[in-house]
């Protein structure tokens, strides 16, 4: 999946990936996509939950070689 | 986006592990757009103290309590397996290895995200603590009614 910005959260555990996502999303314009790369499996459910609460769109997950990539699009 | 949700936490415990859990939840709540208020009471006051000797001490008992339970985030110990400090030290080492924020870092992060820190005046009085004994980040010194006023609006209210 394409993204406008990538946030590397490899090696970081909850709540850091989510906290960093909240900070990073501020710098995006509505409609832009943020890719977060992490290896804490909790992110697969944390990110959809976070997106729902904050009015952003969770686009999906891609996993490969120990990396979990989650995609969020900034809402209006 | 939906209306902002409120979250409150009563931090009653002064244990390191419980304080970390409280801040993890507070920080996550804040990152999810919630308004987060933390009410520090009883042993929880030690988490937000500067750690210098209490100024408002008025009796020998208070002085002794203060000496036996020095304040400050850096002095907090595990609730179990502290093992005279060895357990706490080991835990801090593990946290570093797994790149988890320390209690001090979690406090700073909470601040950055707009989490509010409230200190319980009753507990302060009992322990001989004054406003100047607390870190600058404390927003206000309040009582239970203030906390409950916030909690009645809170979607998530936790006692730690």
Would you spell out the secondary-structure blueprint of this structure?
The complex is a heterodimer of chains A (76) and B (160).
Chain A: E1 5-9, H1 16-25, E2 33-38, H2 43-54, E3 57-64, E4 67-73
Chain B: E1 6-11, H1 16-31, E2 35-40, H2 60-68, H3 86-97, H4 103-112, E3 116-120, H5 121-127, E4 140-142, H6 144-152, E5 156-159
Parallel strand pairs in B: 1-2, 1-5, 2-3, 3-4
Helix pairs in contact in B: 1-4
What attributes does this structure have?
heterodimer, A: 76 residues, alpha+beta, Translation Initiation Factor IF3, 4-stranded mixed beta sheet, 29% helix, 34% strand, globular, B: 160 residues, alpha/beta, Hypothetical Protein Ychn, Chain: A, 5-stranded parallel beta sheet, 6 helices, 5 strands
Task: Provide a brief overview of the structure.
Chain A is of the alpha+beta class. Chain A has a single domain, classed as 2-Layer Sandwich (Translation Initiation Factor IF3).
Account of the protein in words:
- The complex is a heterodimer of chains A (76) and B (160).
- Chain A has 76 residues and is an alpha+beta fold.
- Chain A has a single domain, classed as TusA-like domain (Translation Initiation Factor IF3).
- Chain A is built from two helices and four strands; from the N terminus they run βαβαββ.
- Chain A has helices at residues 16-25, 43-54; strands at 5-9, 33-38, 57-64, 67-73.
- Chain A has a four-stranded mixed β-sheet, covered by helices on one side.
- In chain A, α1 (16-25) links the parallel β1 and β2 (33-38).
- The model of chain A has no long low-confidence stretch (mean pLDDT 95).
- By secondary structure, chain B is α/β, with parallel strands linked by helices.
- A five-stranded parallel β-sheet of chain B has the order 4-3-2-1-5, sandwiched between helices.
- The two termini of chain B are 30 Å apart.
- In chain B, α1 packs parallel to α4 (103-112).
- In chain B, 39% of the residues lie in helices and 15% in strands.
- The longest helix of chain B is centred in the first third of the chain and has 16 residues, at 16-31.
- Chain B contains six helices and five strands; from the N terminus they run βαβαααβαβαβ.
- Chain B has a single domain, classed as DsrEFH-like (Hypothetical Protein Ychn, Chain: A), CATH 3.40.1260.10.
- The radius of gyration of chain B is 16 Å and the shape is globular.
- The chains are: A alpha+beta (76), B alpha/beta (160).
